[in-house]
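Chain A, query sequence.
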Amino acid sequence: MTELTALATELCTPWGAPGSPPKLVVNRENAVFDVRLETGERAALRLHRAGYQTADSILSELRWTERLASAGFPCPVPLRTQEGELLVQRDGAPIASLIRWIDAVPIADLNDEEGPDPELYHTVGALIGTLHNKTDQIELTGISRPAWSRETLLGERPAWGRFWENPALSNSQKDLLIKTRHAADDALKEMAAPDIGLIHADLLQENILQGDGGLWLIDFDDAGVGNRLYDLGTALIQHIYDARYDGFVDALLSGYEDSRGVTVKAGDLKLFVLLRGLASCGWIISRAAHDDPIHRVYADRAVKLSMDFQS
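Chain A, predicted structure.
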């Protein structure tokens, strides 16, 4: 048994001893384990990475998804410990939380190399609209999450890093991203009646699952308070090079507008796809070596989106 698995076993005990050693599923932002409790219930144990979210913020995430799930929304259901707590904290160890296992697969895996069909994004858009609707209807007492605001997206110290300092950028590309940063900030300031509230903020394909009962949204780790259109921009960011991109946009907007009862301006959506591309260009800086070619992938995407936005 590895040291990390042993730690997972220990931190799982407040929910009941696991029937077998936890199995590591992924160890990236958080370490996630597949756990089978003695009761037979299958769950996902998350060991939250230090320094990203506070205990209060993690607790807020769990309260939000618990209330959403109770309202019938398809998202992870937090499991409470035998003493009724949502998370476990022990000195020198990461914060632990446990959620009910969802038997489903990421939508990226549905059509082999092509990924999901654009038509599926009508359902994705409708589900995002339902997320926002349900959130506006449930009790939000005791829920406090970080802001996805002009400052945290475009300020001097963005939450995910100074994207214009990505090491793969040339000097002229850095200048372009700085110019775009100011133009995007002006566009945000000029938006009339923005729809601000709790958002998922990371609706990539790997966080949208397809199961027998339909679609599920998982991994609310980056959730915060921001413009609801950021969720739409994030859902589209992985498809910008796809020849079917316009189909993704049309389907997503149709589903979202029908569900949410709003009309989204094309220019506003373009802005929020850009904002996600810029944020991701900063996110990779602290997660890869300075000379890692992965920086080029995020930098090129941010440059493309910046050029499109300014055209």
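Strands lie at 23-27, 31-36, 42-47, 96-100, 105-106, 147-148, 196-199, 208-211, 214-217, 224-227. The mean pLDDT is 95.
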